[in-house]
Write a structure and sequence with these properties.
128 residues; mainly alpha
């Protein structure tokens, strides 16, 4: 994967987090929502979007070895988002380590990019 593709994925995950952050400002970073609403807005809806664009995303950043590209893409969407949440919640707001439980939906979303993109990458490798 080229530096251009890594930059693209970093910018894409940063943009995704920024929209998520801005959307959460009016709800105390989604804390004021019910469990079901937070689950739908923060976990299910982004998962559906990722599943819909996953194949195109992998084809954009790789021409072969899609499974490896899926691991890299999923890592950007899991770890970069967690890192930004850490900066905001831990460093800026001063939350303790319990923020991982209090903001359960952030923690819950972390493995989802792997669960979605890895099977897509595996299937694309089988097709080529």
């Amino acid at each position: 994967m080229t530096l251009k593709n890594h930059s693209y994925l970093f910018c894409l995950s940063t943009t995704f987090w920024a929209w998520f952050f801005l959307g959460g400002l009016w709800t105390n970073y989604y804390q004021d929502l019910s469990f079901a609403t937070a689950l739908i807005i923060v976990v299910i809806f982004p998962s559906i979007i990722l599943a819909l664009v996953g194949k195109g995303l992998l084809k954009t950043v790789a021409k072969t070895n899609y499974f490896k590209a899926a691991v890299v893409c999923a890592s950007y969407f899991a770890f970069v988002l967690l890192f930004y949440d850490f900066i905001y919640l831990k460093l800026y707001l001063g939350k303790g380590p319990s923020y991982l439980l209090d903001y359960w939906y952030l923690t819950f979303f972390s493995p989802i990019p792997y669960l979605i993109l890895l099977p897509i990458g595996h299937q694309l490798d089988k097709e080529t």
